[in-house]
Amino acid sequence: MAGFATESATARLARLLTMVPWLVNRQGxxxxxxxxxxxxxxxxxxxxxxxxxxxxxxxxxxELIEADWEEGRVFIGNADTIARPLxxxxxxxxxxxxxxxxxxxxxxxxDRDAVERALAKLEDAAGSAAAPAARVRAEVADGGSSxxxxxxxxxxxxxxxxxxxxxxxxxxxxxxxxxxxxRVVGMDGRWYLEGWCHRAGDTRMFRLDRIExxxxxxxxxxxxxxxxxxxxxxxxxxxxxxxxxxxxxxLPGATWVADYYPVESSEEISAADGGGLMVRLRxxxxxxxxxxxxxxxxxxxxLDPPQVVAEVAAGAAAALTAYGEG
Length: 326
Known about the structure:
By secondary structure, the chain is an alpha+beta fold. It has helices spanning about 10-25, 30-40, 40-50, 80-85, 90-105, 110-125, 145-160, 255-260, 285-295, 305-325, and strands at about 30, 65-70, 75, 160-170, 175-185, 190-195, 200-205, 210-220, 245-250, 265-270, 275-285, 300-305. This is WYL domain-containing protein.
């Protein structure tokens, strides 16, 4: 059963949706062969089949998927709806077209021809239904220079270690790090390099627009075998042990922050003291924290450390001044 806990719900759902039509078209396949072909363990496949047994298009017994593998051979029934060839709705086709057009503009994209071919086929199949896509504009993440982006992509492909001079906003200092690149991702309008950081002894995400200098070393950059890519399905925010620790009083109406972001501790505050929660959280980006507190509109108060208290107060005062000038 090892490894189940590290898989995200999104990754498992994607596998299940792919697995059902695959098994429907291979009725009676040997359980172990199916596991090998699907790239999972027999235990994982049996866990998936147990889950499929509870899935369907309704809640009545005849609306649920039938899965049988007791004799060592897998049979799937009542899953014709899921096993049908994919048919895109208008909104899905438009979303894919816009996404492919954005992907086509990504600097340094290797197989651009494949994107062009997929886009042409999709536009041809969608016909006039794809017209709304012309009114949608998708901007590609532009954080960091295209030169840095191209170099880190090449380092990932060639498995070369890189040396970074990297700005840490929380401490307003630049650090020197050797990193074994694992992948380059674009999220929330920014590009990130994820890799094994030899300084931290762990996997780290580096925003490309904060890389002040990058040197590709003539050293093998294969990450350690135990290095794992982060699950980014819930965003890039993931505090590290050496990030700045901040204490925030979340007044009633802002306590959702404790559920939405990872916090180190949370303590209820009595109504006599304003109510809500006192939380302590870590962040490497005080600019992000400032924006969060300002967005809370007075329902969030930073209490520590003093420099962040001052930054939040100065930003709020500047905003009020700007309102007055308007």
